[in-house]
Design goal:
The structure is a homodimer of 225-residue chains. Chain A has 225 residues and is mostly helical. Chain A has helices spanning 6-21, 28-35, 39-45, 57-69, 76-93, 95-107, 109-134, 140-164, 172-190, 210-223. Chain A is elongated, with a radius of gyration of 23 Å. In chain A, helix 4 (57-69) runs antiparallel to helix 5 and helix 6 (95-107) crosses helix 7. Residues 192-199 of chain A have low confidence and may be disordered. At the A-B interface, helix 7, helix 8, helix 9 and helix 10 of A face helix 7, helix 8, helix 9 and helix 10 of B. The structure holds a DNA duplex (30 and 30 nucleotides).
DNA sequence: ATATTGACGATACTCAGTTTCGATAGCTTG
DNA sequence: CAAGCTATCGAAACTGAGTATCGTCAATAT
């Protein structure tokens, strides 16, 4: 009769009712009733009403943490790339669920805030990992913060585009493109390690005036101290 | 007798009680009682219990929006820098309040999520502004997302450092440093406008092998298409 | 003096989330 | 087979946030 596990029945009932009546108009009693269980049982499986829509955020977060922990500083870029791919793949693998949830979250402020808070936890994870990776190099804290924010932002940009398009294409290409962009953005600032042993060269338009050249060089020297 | 306006009395009562008993242990009735008004009056001034701690986020957000709207694409960098400075100054000007709130928000998950959601609204504002600024150049959406995330992350990094240190120094220097870092990070990717008219040059260590040179050049060409 | 407006208090209501207790089914162990 | 043991679920009562409604009172206008 009722083969699927209760947690899944509850989640499906919740999404269905949210679609039909709206989020605020649906009570936990309604969800439990449709799933054929009691209100108590709902709160046994989900800590809150919102949790029923984000059932697997915790496990996914743990998978990301595990992937990052399994890496050293040498393979940091690969680890980060892998981790972001895992997250995106998690959405793509359940395209229908992701799309329903996206449409719902977009309309309900409480759910949007919740989603944002979840994303912040991913960003914190990346920041801590990159922070250890950078060690105590100058501006390590700032750079870790910026890299983590950029990685997460790149992922979100790709994911949102895919969701807005109705999940009609494979977003792994755009994701790789975005991640390459992020890596390239930071690489030129991470390159100089021993300034005393480097030649400084810059790129200019053929039409650049001497003033332009001076301005860019000054900018470069100021920003890399 | 009771000169300060009710909204301020309520906010002070809320912070004081949260400090003394903790957030969850304080009811709205307690806050209203200490402020000498009724529970109804509390909800007239603040939409929720959390609102009492973030009274001026909306007005600050509006000020930022106004500053950005007052700018064109030409002066975008100045506008963004100004806007971030306004936000940081808002915290620094009320150092005691900021510090109390910081210690409180750090301990209460509900408040932390709320704070994060507020930050996301700033980021959205910057993203929309930078998006218009970039127009329909290639990767405009991605770049706008990354720049907005980086600007906000830089601000947060500086602010958090200042808060953790107990607000004991002037953070405007570190903020300018962080913003210059962000601008420098993106500048090299924004520079090339007409590739047919440019000379491509790169920077290498004197000890770099030909393989290193090839790898970096390949990276550069792939990432700037 | 009367009407109007706005700020405040009182009250009752809905519902999320917590806690406690009790029932039942399945399983182990003597 | 019988007696526990445990896990799962339901029932019920409770706290507190947030909403809605109505009444009161004071200030100001007419």
């Amino acid at each position: 009769m009722s083969k699927p596990p209760i947690s899944q029945r509850l989640a499906e009932a919740a999404v269905a009712l949210f679609d039909e009546r709206g989020y605020d108009e649906t009570t936990v009693d309604d969800i439990a009733a449709r799933a054929g269980v009691s209100r108590s049982t709902f709160f046994r499986y989900y800590r809150s009403k919102e949790d029923a829509i984000f059932p697997d955020h915790d496990t996914l977060l743990e998978r990301i943490a595990a992937r990052l922990r399994a890496s050293t500083a040498d393979t940091a870029i690969v680890a980060i790339t892998d981790a972001v791919r895992i997250v995106l793949a998690h959405y793509v693998d359940d395209a229908e669920v992701s799309l329903r949830r996206y449409r719902l979250v977009r309309r309900v402020p409480a759910l949007r805030d919740r989603e944002i808070a979840s994303v912040a936890r991913y960003q914190r994870l990346f920041r801590e990992f990159v922070g250890e990776w950078l060690g105590d190099s100058p501006d390590a804290g700032l750079r870790a913060e910026l890299m983590a924010a950029s990685v997460v932002a790149a992922h979100n940009q790709v994911l949102r585009g895919w969701l807005r398009a109705g999940g009609t294409y494979d977003p792994s290409g755009p994701l790789d493109h975005a991640l390459r962009y992020v890596i390239a953005t930071f690489r030129h600032l991470e390159q100089p390690q021993d300034k005393g042993d480097q030649i400084v060269v810059a790129t200019f338009s053929r039409a650049a005036s001497p003033q332009d050249v001076m301005a860019v060089i000054q900018q470069h020297l100021e920003s890399s101290t």
